[in-house]
């Protein structure tokens, strides 16, 4: 067997047959055979150069094509320019007939709130005969104060009165006897005068004793605290066994059981209201309306809040509690006013306002006074005449002086 001989050809290893497979890396023993199987070294390098040049040409063509595509290729279509002026929906409200219902808030109070206390000297309370929320009648005893000492004093004064009356009767009898004897000369004129003075003094002492007794009886009567009028007990601040004195308020009484709501009304609405207008009052947390009428309009407007007080008289009902907060609606007829959607009216620490669009399509702030709020929208009491172009819903996102593209809102068919 011939051994294999390795020959390098174009970078590859070629195995030649030899005598031994284990000596394939050994030198060939026969020079002629070696020359027959080996290739010249210049032939491998030339072959490599032939492959390099086409590769470089292909690479250069690819680079040139990429550059040409970048420079002369199709450019993406540019997006149309976006306008910086926003489109904003506007409305021209005009004038609409709206029910002139004036809404106001306030608290419930007694129309006439009477303080009931001790009129006499006071003392220890024996019995309390009334409770808060109870209807009472004029003269009804509410509290009974201990009057044992005053009762004994009355007995003493009554005895003094009887003694004075007896002295007066005796003096009157002595005077009459003396007058019968004066004509016979037994008694002088001076004795008659003396007896007359004695009789008059005794009669005067009777009057003093009677007056003292009456005063003490009146004092005892005032120890029974009584209701000054018919009404509703609003509050009780006394208990049995308590020591009370003059000036201490024991009860608060709503005279006639009539309550009122003191509604805080805007200054411009006070000019519309009149005494006798019907109103409904709804306490906070309640769904029931209580009917009443305006009975008094306070003549003073508060300088800070620019509000007045409209007093709405309400008959007593268990659902009405003094001190509770409530909302009222006073029916004041109809009026022609601009009506806007609620989204058009904004409010901040300076008050309510809307954004209107001027002739140059720039927005500006306009302060307004809100009137009636109903299902159809918000009526504007002052600030608009109905011809303005009002921003419908984006007023909170616009700044005064900002230019917009106004779009008139479509009205519902």
UniProtKB/TrEMBL annotation:
Domain CusB-like beta-barrel: 262-331
Coiled-coil residue spans: none
Keyword Calcium listed: no
Keyword RNA-binding set for record: no
One Gene Ontology molecular-function label: efflux transmembrane transporter activity
Pfam family membership, one: BSH_CzcB
Cross-referenced Gene3D superfamilies: 2.40.30.170, 2.40.420.20, 2.40.50.100, Helix hairpin bin
Residues covered by the CzcB-like barrel-sandwich hybrid domain: 122-254
GO CC terms: efflux pump complex
Domain of life: Bacteria
Positions of transmembrane segments: 55-72
Keywords: Membrane, Transmembrane, Transmembrane helix
SUPFAM superfamilies, A to Z: HlyD-like secretion proteins
Residue ranges of domain Multidrug resistance protein MdtA-like C-terminal permuted SH3 in the record: 339-393
Similarity-based family: Belongs to the membrane fusion protein (MFP) (TC 8.A.1) family.
NCBIfam families assigned: RND_mfp (TIGR01730)
UniProt-listed PANTHER family: HLYD FAMILY OF SECRETION PROTEINS (PTHR30469:SF15), MULTIDRUG RESISTANCE PROTEIN MDTA (PTHR30469)
Designated name of the protein: Efflux RND transporter periplasmic adaptor subunit
Origin species: Sandarakinorhabdus fusca
